[in-house]
Amino acid sequence: MGWQDNCHPNTASFTRRGRMCLVGEKATWGEDGKKQVTDTLIDGQSYRKLFKRDDWNDVVIIAKGNHLQHYLNGTLILDCTDIHGRCTTTTRSLPMKFWKRPLLVCCALGWCFVAPLAVTAAQAEGPVKVFILAGQSNMEGHGNVELTEPAIEHMKRNNTYERDKNNYLDYLAKHSDRKDKYKHLLDEHGQWAKRDDVWFIWQRTGRDGGEIKSKLTVGLGASGSPKIGPELQFGQIMGDYFQEPVLLIKTAWGGKSLAVDFRPPSAGLPPVEELKARLDRINENNEKNNRDPLTMEQMKSSYGHYYRLMISEVNETLKNVKSKFPEYGESQGYEITGFVWFQGWNDGQSVEFASEYTENFKHLVHDIRKEYGPISVVIGSSGFGKNAPSRNDGWVNRLREHVEPAQIAAAKQLDNVECFETGDCLIPHEDRTSNRGIHHWFNSAETYFLIGKGLGNTMKSLLD
Questions:
Q1: What are phi and psi of 186, to 5 degrees?
Q2: Helix-strand-coil split of the chain, %, nearest 5
């Protein structure tokens, strides 16, 4: 079998029995058959600007033994060295031009065949790649975007401006010393860019709730002022990875546990004694607050309610993709490719909830795959405690000591499941002494960006 080079307006890749090297990567496949990315040659936004949609494109592919290089319009965009032996070729340099459309180059036994490919999502591209993004408020997304004058004045009054300005994507992407890491989020006019090849939908709750349907861009987080969640950078990475369009279906609600609200069907209900004890606690609290008592049947119905709602919302979107996204070609179909789970805070409310997490998550994966097939699954851990400023927080300690280890353990016990540990995504500050706001990562856009990046790269490792 030969290797194949794909060049497309949104991405490019070398493939041979799977994607070996993606656009922007300088990669080496070692003797152990594992891929190591050693450098970034170009980011997704710069690649899309480099590709001429309405003009001729110059492509040079150089194959020297086990070393493959791909140049687009004079810029090196892919560099792959294969020590493992998956793509060894005879030495050959291939200059070529193509107009507007992506190019497919197939090489076998030193001979190369070139054919143009159509670019419209509704025609020749493969099925739309669908990812379900599920969880509670941190999947909703609470990373700040707009650094307004009132916000600046408030931070300066409290002497927190230098510490907290990087919580705002506005500052990060346009003014910070690391703005180059975020330049792909901006268009040529300095406005938030929209990706034509990554679609997003979410039935958002809150004061400005309703169906949020958009091309991937900034501001698709929780209700209120513009916010971001993990969807932003996760979607960027998946959009760069696939030639096909990508659809992100977000299903997230704040304040929900896996032990109760998202409890999957195969987990069943807790033992009767546990149910009675919980009902007694609920009604004791109801009495204190002059609320009507809850019946056992009412309480039982709350178990798994948001799991059922999640499935319902996903299925409703999939049933109506064409009406929601006119770009979608019904003949191309869709493929449910992955499930991303980012949840855990509410299971830290008690050791009882936390102790169930490993088994409940295994049931969740089982039931999701029963519904949608053997898809890849990534879980973002509840890593709040790693860089938490205070160790005297019982809730955060339960997350660190019980919930996060349970999440990591569950992923290790399942096939095609990986856990991305989020603790290092929270940037520590010496002058932060309180955990106030830690449940939403102090509303740090940088943290949500890094979590989305970690989830995306982890999913990519499963798909490679």
A1: -110, 145
A2: 35, 25, 35
Higher pLDDT, 434 or 457: 457
Which 8-state DSSP code applies to residue 85? S
Name residue, tokens 């997230």.
Answer: 252
Q: Answer with the one of 64, 89, 116 that is the final residue of a domain.
A: 116
CA 36/CA 49 separation, integer angstroms: 26
pLDDT of the residue at 33 = 78
Residue where a domain terminates, one of 86, 116, 146:
116
Q: Which amino acid is at 11?
A: T
Domain carrying residue 46:
3-116
Give the angle subtended at the CA of 209 by the CAs of 306 and 420, to the nearest 5°. 55
Pick from 305, 327, 141, 364: nearest CA to 246: 327
Residue 443 Rama label (left phi>0; alpha psi -120 to 50; beta): left
Cα pseudo-dihedral 213, 214, 218, 223, rounded to 10:
-10
pLDDT in tens, 76-127: 998 989 887 654 444 444 444 444 444 444 444 333 343 444 344 444 358 9
Q: What does the block give as tokens for 170?
A: 């506005």
Enter the tokens of residue 437.
């706001």
Domain match, 65 and 169 both = no
Instruction: Report how many domains make up the chain.
Output: 2
Question: Would you state the pLDDT for residue 100?
Answer: 40
Cα 406 to Cα 84, 401, 419: the distances in Å are 35, 9, 11
CA distance 149 to 151: 5
Q: In this structure, is the dihedral angle defined by the CA atoms of residues 103, 104, 107 and 113, taken in order, positive or negative?
A: negative
Question: Could you tell me if 293 and 283 are in contact, meaning their C-beta atoms sit under 8 angstroms apart?
Answer: yes
At residue 264, what are phi and psi to the nearest 5 degrees?
Answer: -75, 150
User: Strand pairing partners for 336?
Assistant: 130
Tokens (6 digits) for 388: 């938490």
Same domain, 455 and 315: yes
Q: How confident is the model at residue 7 (pLDDT cuts 50, 70, 90)?
A: low
